[in-house]
Design brief:
Elements: H1 4-29, E1 45-49, H2 50-56, H3 58-97, H4 103-157, E2 161-165, H5 177-180, H6 183-198, H7 204-209
Parallel strand pairs: 1-2
Length: 210
């Protein structure tokens, strides 16, 4: 789960790049011969801090919390099965030492325990793979919702390029935060859309702050 923000940052960068390409294609379709050379001052560039976005995006945090809960339940189940196996192995050892069973029976019981241990290991690998797939699905769903929102958002803001940025090691090294940082607007818009779809009413405090 530690790599979620990193993966999302990569995906978001791809998303806004595609958004930029779509925008440029749209601009090219409406160019006239006299407007082929667009002045640099006509370009509008903005960026979104992806760390702040994922920390404050209700949809992402909800599905991430669900995934973490599922992971903890799986880990607890595996741990319980493993402890039970350990107890049975200890009991078998005690019976063998006290000669409470024949060597043939002891060997048969040992083979059963080894088979169960292998099953636990196989289940662990399968569950890890399942969690990996669900994590990937979560990232794709989050990326899709961000991309769709940005396309609608940009219809009224007309940015030529929207970049993704991270608090540390991001692509934007220096910017006029007042004019270029649209993180807060994007977060508010994403959460508003998500709450509307989920049927969650905004609190009076949130409404007051708008």
């Amino acid at each position: 789960m530690k790599n979620i923000s990193l993966y999302l940052s990569i995906f978001a960068l791809v998303a806004v790049t595609l958004l930029f390409i779509d925008r440029m294609k749209s601009n090219s379709a409406h160019k006239t011969k006299g407007s082929e050379n667009i002045a640099e001052s006509d370009s509008k560039i903005a960026y979104v801090n992806i760390d702040s976005l994922v920390d404050s995006y209700d949809f992402y945090n909800e599905i991430k919390t669900n995934l973490i809960g599922k992971q903890k339940n799986m880990e607890a189940d595996l741990e319980s099965r493993y402890k039970s196996l350990q107890n049975r192995a200890y009991d078998l050892q005690q019976k063998v030492e006290k000669k409470m069973m024949t060597p043939t029976t002891a060997q048969s019981e040992q083979e059963k325990l080894m088979a169960q241990q292998q099953q636990i290991m196989n289940d662990k690998q399968n569950l890890e793979a399942q969690l990996g797939e669900e994590n990937q699905k979560m990232l794709i769903q989050t990326l899709d919702s961000i991309t769709k929102f940005l396309k609608v958002y940009n219809k009224s803001h007309n940015y030529t390029l929207i970049l993704s940025n991270q608090s540390v090691g991001g692509t934007v090294l220096l910017a006029n935060d007042k004019n270029m940082n649209i993180t807060k607007e994007v977060i508010e818009g994403l959460n508003k859309n998500y709450r509307k779809k989920s049927g969650v009413k905004e609190s009076s405090e949130e409404t007051k702050n708008k």
